[in-house]
Amino acid sequence: MINLGFSILFSSLIFVIFKLFSTYKINTFYAIVTNYFIACLVGLLFYKGEVIISDIPTKSWFLGTILLGILFILVFNLMATTAQKVGVSVASVATKMSLVIPVLFGVFWYQETLSFFQILGILLALIAVYFASIKTKDINLPKISFLLPVLVFLGSGVIDTSIKYLQEIHVEETEYPLFSAVIFASAATIGVLFIIFKSIKTKEKITWKDIFGGIVLGIPNYFSIYYLLKALQSETLNSASVFTINNVAIVMFSTLLGIILFKEQLSLKNWIGISLAIISIVLIALF
To answer: How far from the centroid of its chain's Cα atoms is residue 161's Cα?
Structure first.
């Protein structure tokens, strides 16, 4: 549970940092690409073994890290586009409700069993995420833009499921830092290629402020993945429970941080969502 708690803490800090990006006018995408380099460096520093570059492509999990790196960049851009064209609330709901994908994967692929109370907790979690994330009275989804949140939902779910699969089958615990570092290196490489392509069309340049923002983001970003991998090794919680508690608690904790740090106002629906989140976590963790 301690590892899961750290994953929730660092993941929630990421949302706070994103909020500060808009406050200090930091280019989010450039900061994101920088953050991948920093997260990769942190992973290499925490890896206790010898890093032999030529050996990395021979690892059974290497191809998976390449695909995850591509997904990290694609899903991030889809989230940004969804937030801009459809709304931040829709993007948030689509991202967090994606927890249903790794949960179902764990049940059907790994034959994980769920008690009645855990199933009830997961259902409450889905409802909780919706109510805690919504920021407007109604979500009016344009028909043309309907595909965007669907892609965010699927992409986020595939990322979590892929991490679980690789962690379970291919990655030894001693290689977690290296595995995480290679994922971030892959994402950074894809991001740089995108920036080069973009620079051909626009004259926008990366600033030192963007780089600093990426450094601040990179450290918690790395540890959010590292401790999630550690939490998935729990002997008391299966992967369905880990992903549910992780996603719901992030919504709850980041919402509370928004109230404390940024004086954000919550509606009655938000408070209902937080209350249901607490109940769902108790049901899943205790039963």
So the answer is: 12
Burial of 181 per CB tally in 10 Å (0-12, 13-18, 19+): buried
Q: How many residues does the chain have?
A: 287
pTM of the full structure? 0.80
**Residue 46 corresponds to which tokens in the numbers above?**
């925490």
Are 72 and 182 contacting, i.e. CB atoms less than 8 angstroms apart?
Answer: no
Task: Give the ranges where 86-146 is alpha helix by DSSP (H).
Answer: 88-96, 100-109, 116-133
Q: Which residue has the tokens 């830092």?
A: 177
What are the distances in angstroms from CA 223 to CA 18, 42, 201, 269?
16, 9, 35, 31
pLDDT of 83-95, one tens digit each?
656 655 556 666 7
How sure is the predictor about 212, in pLDDT bands with cuts at 50, 70 and 90? very high
Closest CA to 210 of 218, 198, 220: 218
Per the CB < 8 A criterion, the answer to whether 249 and 121 are in contact is no
Structural domain count, the chain: 1
Domain extent, residue 55, equals 2-286
The SS3 call for residue 156 is: helix
Measure the CA–CA gap between 12 and 261, rounded to whole angstroms: 13
Contact in structure between 135 and 190 (CB atoms under 8 Å): no
- How much is the pLDDT for 283? 81
